[in-house]
User: Fold Outer membrane lipoprotein-sorting protein from Trinickia symbiotica.
Amino acid sequence: MLARADSYRTGSDDAQTRVRITNVIDGSLEDGTDYLVYARTNGDTLAITQTGENQGQKYLATDEGHWFYVPNTRRAVRINGLQRLQGEVVISDITRTHWAKTYSATVAANAAAQIDGRDVTELDLAATDPDSVYPKVKLWVTSNGDVPVRAQFFLASGLLFRTADFGPLVDINGRKLIDKITYRNEIEKKRASVVQLSNGEARKLPVSWFNPDSLSNVN
Assistant:
């Protein structure tokens, strides 16, 4: 189930993707910020800010942790996976996370439900890695096809941190994938961010790009 849900969110090859994050405050859209995101099949992810006052800043996520690099500084700084990338989007959101590898899933009691007119099944996800940013996730997938529809992310304290609503499937290079996700802050409920993916393409990526000590050399 989780592996199939993963297949709608991530490609099977090394890839580069354009990502635009647009913040929504009390229903009003703000200017978007563009990122170029490089992702390896093992989940290593590098995001480079392309526009705005933070242009050139880099965010790296690997199994070893998360790092932030500012141009013209000596080295990258280690950060928490909950560090905000932009608005309601945190650094871990743009990583190529595989639910099937990092969570175990059980079908929730009274799992059958409807969201926006679609029949869905609720899954309770428990992190199998103690370093996971979210130890608990509730995930709703379509009852026919296991397509992700909604997810709720909980902090270690048990607090519901935010909700993600996944857009409809689109055809990208012959595959059905999700290219839009809306993250809603469940603490400050007037705040949300929309993540739009575009121009995804397979590309062989050098392993050296995903070393925090080499970020100054990646353009």
